[in-house]
Design a protein that fits this description.
Largest interface: A-B, 18 and 23 residues
Membrane topology (chain A): Multi-pass membrane protein
Radius of gyration of chain B: 17 Å
Shape of chain A: globular
CATH architecture of chain B: 3-Layer(aba) Sandwich
Low-confidence stretches of chain A: none
Helix content of chain A: over 70%
Number of helices of chain B: 9
Strand order of the largest sheet of chain B: 6-7-8-3-9-10
Oligomer: heterodimer
Keywords (chain A): Amino-acid transport, Cell membrane, Membrane, Transmembrane, Transmembrane helix, Transport
Mean pLDDT of chain B: 92
GO molecular function (chain A): transmembrane transporter activity
Helix content of chain B: 25-40%
Protein name (chain A): Amino acid ABC transporter permease
Structural class of chain B: alpha/beta
Distance between the termini of chain B: 34 Å
Mean pLDDT of chain A: 91
Number of domains of chain B: 1
Strand content of chain B: 25-35%
Number of strands of chain A: 4
CATH topology of chain B: Rossmann fold
Strand content of chain A: under 5%
CATH class of chain A: Mainly Alpha
Pfam families (chain A): BPD_transp_2 (PF02653)
Structural class of chain A: mainly alpha
Number of strands of chain B: 10
Largest sheet of chain A: 2 strands, antiparallel
CATH superfamily of chain B: P-loop containing nucleotide triphosphate hydrolases
Chain lengths: 293, 234
């Protein structure tokens, strides 16, 4: 095993991890504040990808257009988040959690069906935009530029969320609602509105991830499931609802995935599952457990 | 100003309050005293629609509050300081006080959080301390400061002296009296500490197993030593 192989595995792991984090970010945010495990998150990630695909087609003309399409997808999915909140989530805030799980699963099924109706069941593949379709080489090390873009996007979203949650007033307010929604209401904070804002932000993140991760993968109505499992694992290992924890866990999972494909190439995914099981046995509360997002 | 008319309150199937009625006028200071489990906290939470299921009429300024949610009641000028204080531990003392700004009534200008803090001399040096790093007495002071920061018309203070050292209790009594006088807020106080309740209020309701068993002035209670023995002795 050469040094370049290890370096490549590490960078590849960071790219996979960043992609997982992009999906996990919205998932952990909505859990942290509303305590909802949103099964439909993957479906909205997929809708984001399809919306971006409808804008840019299979060959995006430039990096700007590619990124703009991702933000358009974020806006479209955010609007769907508002609708989903009004129609489903808001009605289930005061009933048992099991109903919420079943309801979001139903939303997942509905979304998958709607995607098939609108975009069909055929697979589509999308090329990275110019500037990201090549690779960066250093000696014998070869890194696709799109991987570097995904790493940068993951970092951007992570730092953005950290900044908003820990440094701004709206973040502190949302943390107050997350840690003690009862007292927040007693202090006159409009808790239902804060929860709706969170749902919209979480869905926007799903849509953004869909647009940003669109290239280099097969777009089909089962796309939602592919990242969702890893994203769920990242959210659980990170300590449910904690953004920082989800970020670290995503990178960890990405590195394990990519490292294991180097060491045990015939058993893809195996090392990840073993890691998750062992981790949860040792530290069931996650990396950063607690009441805070 | 506040009128509670024959309310029943429930947690699940168990009924905690039975036909409780009370009124508090503008700027009035009233105590609700009774043993542990008598229903004092349930009464306060019922007034804010913050927990128990309530049957009966709770009116503010003559208007039935109906099913109005908690945060809207807070914005009418009803400010509850819960027994367990519930200071946010992820923000500073000053930011805890700033959280109360959402309770402001339309057209009422709030004091800056620093000015609110200045009313509680004990808190001034703690302004940048995180909420999670306060002693019980400090937490209680912050909770009262936070409640008063929204310029309430009626502050509901639930067992503030529980677990506090006597010297802190005296300080708290002085501060509560001063802020109520200076801000014009009324006070509904739940207490087991009769000394503290007497310092802060003019009249009282005696509550036992979810029913009001006496109301009157403190003097009236003194004239009925039997009441104290029956409802307040341990």
């Amino acid at each position: 095993m050469a040094l370049t192989d290890i370096l490549f595995a590490l960078i590849n792991g960071a790219a996979t991890g960043s992609a997982v984090f992009l999906v996990a970010a919205g998932l952990t945010l909505i859990f942290g504040i509303l305590k909802i495990l949103n099964f439909a998150h993957g479906a909205f990630f997929m809708i984001g990808a399809y919306v971006a695909y409808s804008i840019i087609g299979s060959n995006p003309s430039s990096l700007h257009v590619f990124i703009a399409a991702a933000f358009a997808a974020a806006a479209a999915v955010a609007a769907l988040g508002f609708v989903a909140d009004r129609l489903v989530l808001r009605r289930l805030r005061h009933v048992d959690e099991a109903y919420m799980l079943i309801a979001t699963f139903a939303v997942l099924l509905v979304c998958t069906g709607v995607v098939k109706l609108i975009w069909g069941v055929n697979y589509a593949s999308i090329n990275p935009p110019p500037l990201l379709d090549g690779a960066v080489t250093a000696g014998s090390l070869f890194v696709p530029s799109y991987s570097l873009f995904v790493i940068a996007a993951g970092l951007f979203v992570f730092l953005g969320l950290e900044l908003v949650i820990h440094r701004t007033w709206i973040g502190k307010l949302l943390q107050a609602v997350a840690s003690d929604s009862w007292m927040s209401g007693v202090l006159g904070i409009n808790v239902p509105a804060a929860l709706t804002v969170t749902v919209i932000a979480s869905f926007a993140l799903a849509g953004l991830a869909g647009g940003l991760l669109l290239a280099n993968q097969t777009l089909s109505p089962i796309l939602g499931e592919s990242y969702l499992l890893l994203a769920f694992m990242a959210v659980i290992i990170g300590g449910l609802g904690n953004v920082r924890g989800a970020f670290i866990a995503s990178l960890l999972l990405g590195t394990i995935e990519s490292g294991s494909s180097l060491v045990i190439p015939n058993m893809p995914g195996m090392a990840t599952y073993i890691f998750v099981i062992l981790f949860l046995l040792a530290k069931p509360q996650g990396l950063i457990g607690g009441r805070h997002i | 100003m506040l009128s509670v008319d024959r309310i029943d309150a429930f947690y699940g199937d168990s009924q905690i309050l039975h036909g409780v009625s009370l009124t508090v006028g503008e700027k009035e200071r009233v105590a609700v005293v009774g043993r542990n489990g008598a229903g004092k906290s349930t009464l306060f939470k019922s007034i804010l629609n913050a927990g128990p299921r309530v049957r009966g009429r709770i009116a503010w300024e003559g208007k039935d509050l109906g099913a109005m949610p908690t945060f809207r009641r807070a914005r009418l000028g009803l400010s509850l300081v819960p027994e367990d204080r519930r200071i946010f531990d992820h923000v500073t003392v000053l930011e805890n006080i700033a959280m109360a700004r959402y309770a402001a009534r339309p057209g009422v200008e709030l004091e800056a959080p620093e000015a609110v803090l200045a009313r509680f001399p004990m808190l001034v040096p703690l302004k940048d301390r995180m909420g999670g790093r306060l002693s019980g007495g400090q937490q209680q002071m912050v909770a009262v400061a936070r409640a008063i920061a929204g310029r309430p018309r009626l502050m509901l203070l639930d067992e503030p002296t529980e677990g506090l050292a006597p010297v802190i209790v005296e300080q708290l009594a002085r501060d509560v009296n001063t802020v109520c006088r200076e801000t014009g807020s009324g006070l509904l106080l739940s207490e087991q500490n009769l000394w503290f309740a007497r310092q802060c209020t003019d009249r009282l309701f005696l509550i036992d197993t979810g029913r009001i068993v006496f109301d009157g002035l403190w003097q009236d209670l003194d004239d009925n030593p039997d009441l104290k023995r029956r409802y307040l002795a341990l």
